[in-house]
Amino acid sequence: MRIFCLALSALLLAGCETLAYYGQAAGGQLSLMGRTQPVEQVLADPAAAPALKARLALAGQIRDFAARELRLPDSGAYRGYAELGRPYALWNVVAAPEFSLEPVRSCFPVAGCVSYRGYYDKAAAERHAQGLRETGHDVVVYGVPAYSTLGWFDDPLLSTFIDYPEADLARLMFHELAHQLLYVKDDSPFNESFAVVVEREGLKRWLGTRGRDAELAQWRAREARSRELNGQIAAARERLQALYRSRLDAAAMRERKRAELDGLRPLLARLHRFEGQEPNNAVLASLATYADLVPAFEKLLAEAGGDLPAFYARVRTLAALEPSQRKAALR
Questions:
Q1: Which residues of 288-312 are buried (b: 16+ CB within 10 A; e: fewer)?
Q2: For 205-249, how does the pLDDT look when each residue is reduced to its tens digit (9 = 90+)?
Q3: Rounded to whole angstroms, how far apart are CA atoms 25 and 4?
Q4: Beta bridge partners of 107
Q5: Residue range 313-325, pLDDT digits in tens
Q6: Can you tell me the distance from the alpha carbon of 301 to that of 314, in angstroms, rounded to the nearest whole number?
Q7: Distances 279 to 110, 147, 225 between C-alpha atoms, Å
Q8: How far apart are CA 291 and CA 95, in angstroms?
């Protein structure tokens, strides 16, 4: 019924191309739900692989920890399991104009406007991406192992991520549950940066409470490298933004843009999500969505003394502001 209502509201607003998109979205979600089994049923199945049962049990511990220690929603999420038979749950398409780092936004009845468009079928994602390229946009397509339906449905554990290393599995679940806790329509950088800070704090506490000091040290070292990388990429974005604001003619701007992006190749090669992708404005826009506001949220958490409920309360106060006020407060 929820899918029907969402689809109906979309049909009333949509043109032909958008109708096709909503059709694949509703069909993809229905297919995923149809493949979902209760975790208890899988655990009781003698034919289920012991390795899968162990991972599902671990995910249950992570989910319970998230509710108890991180005060994240104790909902129906991650109480089911779905084998998808493909490497990713979705493929996201991100686009940006040739001389801009602002992503093209897609708007939907429930989620509001977001800086990407997700497809359950990779070929469909590539077709949409090609259409954007033909209109002169920079485009990137990348696989997404999980997504949040923001509490509209009970998001299941998926075959696309259940075999992740424990730390990465925990991070992913904390991140997606954070979206259920707090989501602001039309503000992808706010939502994603908030969820990144929750996942990092959650993983630090998860490893700490389990006495995994060596893994915690490894994670801290990895985070330090990630911060350094993000700083270098942010500096390149600033140079490109200055270039795009200049009065150079298109040919000269295009040449300088290519030189700047070529210099980013060694940095972007270290990011698994964009492995094999050509550096372009869309890649940089996608990275900014997940990184730009992280320092602001980290500062809010520190000012709250690491008290997560107090942190969440402050974030909710920001979320209630007008977009321009919210952006100014975070900056």
A1: bbbbbbbebbeebbeebeeebeebb
A2: 999 999 888 989 998 898 898 889 889 999 999 999 999 999 899
A3: 12
A4: 113
A5: 999 999 999 999 9
A6: 9
A7: 32, 25, 20
A8: 18
Cβ atoms of 188 and 118 closer than 8 Å: no
Could you read off the pLDDT of 28-83 as tens digits, one per residue? 999 999 999 999 999 999 999 999 999 999 999 999 999 999 999 999 999 999 99
DSSP letters for 52-71: HHHHHHHHHHHHHHHHHHS-
- C-alpha distance from residue 130 to each of 66, 139, 284 (Å): 40, 8, 19
| DSSP string computed for 93-104 | EEEE-TT--SPP
Tokens representing residue 29 in the block: 């979600």
Q: pLDDT (tens digit, 9 = 90+) per residue, 126-160?
A: 999 999 999 999 999 999 999 999 999 999 999 99
Which amino acid, residue 201? E
What's the CA gap between 264 and 279, in Å, rounded? Answer: 7
